[in-house]
Design brief:
The complex is a heterodimer of chains A (76) and B (413).
Chain A lengths: L1 H12 L13 H4 L4 H15 L5 H4 L5 H12 L1
Chain B lengths: L4 E10 L2 E2 L1 H10 L5 E2 L12 E2 L13 H5 L3 H16 L12 E6 L5 H14 L8 H5 L3 H10 L5 E2 L7 H14 L5 E8 L4 H10 L28 E9 H6 L6 E10 L12 H14 L8 E3 L6 H15 L7 E3 L2 H4 L6 H15 L1 E2 L22 E2 L4 E8 L3 E8 L4
Parallel strand pairs in B: 5-6, 5-7, 10-11, 10-14
Antiparallel strand pairs in B: 1-2, 1-8, 1-9, 3-4, 7-8, 9-15, 12-13, 14-15
Helix pairs in contact in B: 3-6, 7-13, 10-11
Classes of the chains: A mainly alpha (76), B alpha/beta (413).
């Protein structure tokens, strides 16, 4: 799951493949994503995993670990 | 006292070549940009030909992340602007960026983005429409993105006058420097409408050529068999600069810009006014603005769309504006080579006109094998020619009845 999430973020933000992304990485603080990027990345997760991520949930994500945990919980 | 305005940089992305040198070369050789459309399946479209750009790699000019956040028309504008910076050898460290502006016209803006996202709206619902739809689609974003790319903090606007957008943009930028609002302006036009929605709209208007069996002869301005325009795409950007500023930094000067006219037909949404009345007044206005007699004009880069009406009425307009001199001057339509770049057409044709005064060369109207007997000017059929060009004039006429004319002069101190 973490690898898939990472792959989507790299693709959406046009990052180099060797960028360091860990559970503690923040898209906005560490990867220079702006608020519009964040919205589009959330949509990409919704498409990929066929889930709904309500805005109020998405707003709580602080780092990539939070996102991975949320998606895993949702899928189970 | 008005500032003198000169052209000091040229960038172009076009169906007949990218960059100043390739574009000039293409115009001189009579290069043909037409081909069958490859961007999408044209089976159900009445027009299957266009002057498509097939070799454009945006990542040569824009970083990967930004490429995804820009419509194709903005990508073209950024690429052409970067070429213009390089061509003009501009070092922004020694320029007051608060006095550098951008005015880039586009007729249609981000129609490909709009179409893609509308499809998403219908198939997946409103929650899946990209947050980048609006900032990618809006027509002013080429001017906005170019300002961010180069750090230009002066006047920044967009002109939307259909097929006259590029010409009006350049005219407005010229006036901004003349009156002292800016030292340097990046100006021109950009367009990328060769997509399903764009082509379908023009197809049902019956405005385009349907010469699908012979793409290379589909754009044939002033020819008796002309049957509509050939859609093109791309961007032309020029750097206009006050003479004083250009001289101070030792810039290469391609031409001086001396005149601008803008009028309206106030007649019909798509048809030009009978006899080209609005276009004639526009040319006269631009020539007056240049402060010369009509007989000073050596070359007219015509709007010359290859539609039955345009070429007829524009010819009448030239005769009205120039009288007997209409028969002495050279006319050509470079749309015979590039296709019709809609809102970018005036920009690439301004560049063709700049070439004419700089190189003393009149580019040809290719595919002109059976000149319409009703049209009796010298359209520079098929082969360009060396000719002293002191003044060149470029016309653009847009849906909505918008007319624009700009005048360039050979630069002399």
């Amino acid at each position: 799951m973490f690898e898939k999430v990472k792959e989507i973020i790299i693709d959406q933000l046009g990052l180099d493949e060797d960028v360091v992304i860990e559970r503690s990485t923040s898209m906005m603080r560490d990867l220079e994503a702006d608020s519009l990027d964040a919205v589009e990345i959330i949509m990409a997760f919704e498409d990929e995993f066929d889930i709904e991520i309500p805005d109020e949930e998405a707003e709580k994500f602080d780092n990539i670990g939070d996102i991975v945990d949320y998606i895993e919980a949702k899928l189970n | 006292m008005k500032n003198r305005v000169v052209v000091t940089g040229i960038g172009v992305v076009s169906p007949i070549g990218h960059g100043r040198e390739a574009f000039f070369q293409g115009l001189k050789e009579g290069k043909n940009g037409a081909s069958l459309i490859e961007a999408f399946d044209t089976t159900e479209y009445t027009t299957k030909v266009a002057a498509e750009i097939k070799d454009f790699n945006p990542e040569l000019y824009i970083n990967k992340k930004e490429v995804k956040r820009m419509d194709r028309f903005t990508q073209f504008a950024i690429a052409a602007s970067k070429m213009a910076v390089e061509d003009g050898q501009i070092n922004f460290d020694s320029v007051d960026m608060n006095r550098v502006g951008v005015i880039i016209g586009s007729g249609i803006g981000g129609i490909q983005t709009l179409a893609e996202q509308h499809e998403k709206l219908l198939s997946k619902g409103p929650g899946r429409v990209s947050p980048f739809l609006i900032p990618m689609m809006i027509t002013n974003m080429a001017s906005g993105q170019v300002s961010m790319e180069i750090g230009a903090k002066g006047p920044n606007t967009t002109v939307v006058t259909a097929c006259a957008s590029g010409t009006h943009a350049i005219g407005d930028a010229f006036k901004a420097i003349q009156r002292g609002d800016a030292d340097m302006m990046f100006t021109g036009g950009s367009e990328a409408a060769i997509c399903e929605l764009g082509m379908a709209g023009f197809c049902t208007m019956k405005a385009m050529t349907t010469r699908n069996d012979d793409p290379l002869t589909s754009s044939r301005p002033f020819d008796v068999d002309r049957d509509g325009f050939l859609m093109g795409e791309g961007s032309g950007i020029i750097v206009l600069e006050s003479l004083e500023h250009a001289q101070k930094r030792g810039a290469t000067i391609y031409a001086e810009m001396v005149g601008y006219g803008a009028t309206a037909d106030a007649y019909h949404i798509t048809s030009p006014a009978p006899n080209g009345e609005g276009a004639a007044r526009c040319m006269t206005m631009a020539v007056n603005d240049a402060g010369v007699e009509p007989s000073a004009i050596d070359y007219i880069n015509a709007h010359g769309t290859s539609t039955p009406y345009n070429d007829k009425f524009e010819t009448m307009a030239i005769k009205t504006a120039f009288g007997d001199h209409a028969y002495n001057l050279s006319v050509s339509s470079t749309k015979s080579m590039t296709g019709h770049l809609l809102g970018a057409s005036g920009a690439v044709e301004a560049i063709a006109s700049i070439m004419a005064v700089h190189d003393d060369f009149v580019p040809p109207t290719i595919n002109l094998h059976n000149q319409d007997p009703e049209l009796d000017l010298d359209y520079t059929a098929n082969v360009g020619k060396n000719k002293t060009v002191n003044y060149a004039l470029s016309n653009s006429l847009g849906f909505g009845g918008h007319n624009g004319t700009i005048v360039f002069k050979k630069f002399e101190i």
